[in-house]
Design goal:
Elements (H helix, E strand, L loop, with lengths): L6 H13 L6 E4 L6 H16 L5 E4 L1 E2 L5 E2 L1 H8 L11 H16 L2 H8 L5
Parallel strand pairs: 1-2
Antiparallel strand pairs: 3-4
């Protein structure tokens, strides 16, 4: 599951713990520019999940071809523009949140085994 650090994903995790429905993986895409409270809450939730015998939150990041971390702020400064949401688009969310999660999952052997065994995507 994707944990964004907000109300919806927090509520979903609380309900999953309540129902003892463990996800295989909990991902947090760190764009490198979240509010300090989001990082603090993510750490709090991670400790809470561990205490409830649930998987830890795995942080993922956008990286370049050499493995260097890229941030949304860096991208905006290099392009001399605001994040795409300022113009009514969601390209930054795809680039800095969805794609790192997808890349992480695509590289998990357990996911590959599931898909090769006929599991849906």
């Amino acid at each position: 599951m994707s944990f964004g650090g907000g109300i919806d994903s927090t509520a979903m995790l609380i309900e999953m713990v309540k129902r003892n429905t463990k996800p295989d993986l909990i991902l947090f895409s760190d764009v490198g520019a979240e509010k300090p409270g989001t990082y603090k809450h993510t750490d709090f939730m991670n400790n809470w999940l561990i205490a409830n015998n649930f998987p830890q939150i795995t942080k993922v990041f956008r990286v370049d071809k050499n493995g260097n971390r890229l941030t949304l702020e860096q991208d905006c400064l290099e392009k001399n523009c605001l994040p795409s949401i300022a113009y009514g688009y969601k390209k930054c969310s795809l680039k800095f949140k969805a794609q790192p999660q997808e890349k992480h999952v695509n590289n998990l052997q357990s996911a590959r085994d599931f898909w090769s065994g006929g599991g849906g995507r």
